[in-house]
Amino acid sequence: MTSQVSSTTEQADEPVVGEQRKPAGAKDVRRLDRVIIRFAGDSGDGMQLTGDRFTSETASFGNDLSTLPNFPAEIRAPAGTLPGVSSFQLHFADHDILTPGDAPNVLVAMNPAALKANVSDLPRGAEVIVNTDEFTKRAMQKVGYGTSPLEDGSLDGYSVHPVPLTTLTVEALKEFELSRKEAERSKNMFALGLLSWMYHRPTEGTEKFLTTKFAKKPAIAAANIAAFRAGWNFGETTEDFAVSYEVAPAQSAFPAGTYRNISGNLALSYGLIAASRQADLPLYLGSYPITPASDILHELSKHKNFGVRTFQAEDEIAGIGAALGAAFGGSLAVTTTSGPGVALKSETIGLAVSLELPLLVVDIQRGGPSTGLPTKTEQADLLQAMYGRNGEAPVPVVAPRTPADCFEAAIEAARIALTYRTPVFLLSDGYLANGSEPWRIPETDGLPDLRVRFAQGPNHTLDDGTEVFWPYKRDPGTLARPWAIPGTPGLEHRIGGIEKQDGTGNISYDPANHDFMVRTRQAKIDGIDVPDIEVDDPDGASALVLGWGSTYGPITAAVRRLRTAGESIAQAHLRHLNPFPSNLGAVLKGYDKVVIPEMNLGQLATLIRAKYLVDAHSYNQVNGMPFKAEQLATALKEAIDD
Question: Which residues form the Pyruvate/ketoisovalerate oxidoreductase catalytic domain (predicted)?
Answer without folding.
Answer: 44-231
